[in-house]
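User: Sequence in, structure out. Go.
Assistant: Echoing your sequence, followed by the structure tokens.
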Amino acid sequence: MLTRIFASIVVILFCAGFGAQAATLPSLQRPNPNVVVLGDSISYGDSYVENLRTHLAYSLGDRGPGFFSIWSGAWVMTGAWNSESAYGPFGSAVSGKNGAVAKLTVYRDSESLDLLYLCMPDSTPFTLVVDSIPHPVGRGDCRTPTYMKETIATGNFGWHWVEVDVPNSGKAYIWGLSAETGNDGVLVNNISQSGRRLIDLSPSTDSLGFLDVLAPTLTIVSLGMNDIGSGVPLDQYEAALSRLVAYASRFGAVIVVSENPRKDADTLNPHQSDYVRVNEQVARAAGVMYVDMYKRWGEYSGAVNRGLISSDGYHPTSKGHLDYAAALWEQLWHPTVRPRMR
């Protein structure tokens, strides 16, 4: 069954504090909500997202492990695969051509799989093999890049072996796979990517078409750290954030998160606090939730002394990741609370 609807919750994590309009956890009491986390390396690899997923699943039920990036180390890829930097919620999709193969073992129990791909002017049909059963998928008749989803019912509950086969003289654009248990509950899709900048994810409204497929009921975006490090002009940063928040708000609630203080914040121009201010202003103007890890943790040296930031000066420690999850959980339950980590 080919569908372009993928109910999801996209939570937008940035570098700021606790504020509070929009959705609280009771607003997630819709049938089978999905959470989508759009982040950078702070949320990539599940880190605090797994902790948040566990708490949400305990409260709302567990609908599955969610999203696997095609570019992650979980996939074994052979043949001609290339990054397509202009497409996908990672800042890139992956194209395979001329007999390319990508294999994945889903080591989490599930009974259905959603393949997320792009229909392009030069793409062709390809094959998704699930547990040795081939499923023809894909289209090649799209004049403009179009995000698509193909749902495969596996017929059994358990682990699954997945293979994407691109035919000779064919080409396919893939950006991931999502697995579901078939049970009622929440699905948390973490589609974060190391090194991602907000400005690259949201350069224009046209770049946000993947949200039409995900159709998030809540959007978390944990972005900004790499924009700050590369000195993205504040007006461009604000425009990209405003675009993303407005687009995601069409589908449901949004949380904007300002990420934690970084070791070189005092030497940056613009300063990290300038981006944090933009995050909060955009969130307030849009009427969405806001979580401020920058203010929550306070000065960089103090956050290091409390064991919240790792030795690289940017990424949270295990303790720091737990506090990210706690801050989001508190926001969802008590949107007027403004705690500090001590």
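User: And one key feature?
Assistant: Residues 1-9, 13-23, 336-342 have pLDDT under 50 and may be disordered.
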